[in-house]
Amino acid sequence: MATTYLPTLKQLQYLLALRDHGHFGRAAEACFVTQSTLSAGLRELETLIGVTLVERTRRVVRFTPLGERIAAKARIVLREAEELGDMARAAGRPLSGDMRMSVIPTIAPFMLPRILPRLRRDYPDLKLFLREEPSGPACEGLHNGRTDCVLLALPFTCGEVASQALFDDRLFVAFQPQDMPNLPPKVPAEAIDETRLLLLEDGHCLKDHALSACNRPELRAEATMLGTSLHTIVQMVDNGLGMTMLPEMAVNAGILEHTSIVARPLDAVNATRTIALVWRRSSPRERDFQLLAGVLAEAP
């Protein structure tokens, strides 16, 4: 019987690191090896399968079309290999071992400080590695195996995932008192001045949730989109530059402390976003994610 030589997982890791970083030095750092070790491993892989995967020049790393396809397949193979370990952990103690979770920026600073101390106390064997990033990159990272689960706000299209809703988070309008005098306890969507509205830039789902809740097309055209954090926008509102919309969790976490800003609930049909935990449907750690969702749901 002929001997079959198969790529090793280490070789596939080197290939994928080079694909993700586009640079031999950075790929080697990500794999915790020297650049010469990574280069040698990739040459061995190319010799093993008898094709060139990467075109090497002094300035550019360029994958061949076949190299791109093999890198995509390597990502799937490595994810499946990681899930072998996940299966073993899932059969042992709940919520133990490493877990990588992405959290969107309009949730992370307001919700995590409330819940992380309890996770450390009740599940001391869990090593939770957190990554803060917008919803799009977070979902992409989930599907390519960079992260295990994502804490985000729905509605958002995240592909074929399993999810568990945690709680609803109301939207508030934040403004200077003189900008909107004599308002009722809730702010009608039609009372918002589209020329004064400050929102996060494209890529942040809170912007889409806010605009959708108001159901006013002119807001999307006239509102000022800023590539900043909610904390920065709050400072701009406090300095009289406009008004904004904030999630209730940010208001409850004290984002308006030491400002003169007033925040009142938005009066609209869909004036909430749903906080949810999502994970790959194929993941063997579903029980762990459900347990984690139960803890996260107590954050409010």
Automatic annotation (TrEMBL):
The record's GO CC annotations read: protein-DNA complex
Origin: domain of life: Bacteria
Where is the HTH lysR-type domain positioned along the sequence? 7-64
Entry-linked InterPro entries: LysR_HTH_N (IPR000847), LysR_subst-bd (IPR005119), WH-like_DNA-bd_sf (IPR036388), WH_DNA-bd_sf (IPR036390)
The alphabetized UniProt keywords are:
DNA-binding, Transcription, Transcription regulation
| One Pfam family here | HTH_1
Q: Name one GO molecular function term.
A: DNA binding
Residue stretches in coiled coil: none
Q: What family does the Swiss-Prot or TrEMBL record give for this protein?
A: Belongs to the LysR transcriptional regulatory family.
The name this protein carries in UniProt is LysR family hydrogen peroxide-inducible transcriptional activator
Organism listed in the record:
Sphingomonas jinjuensis
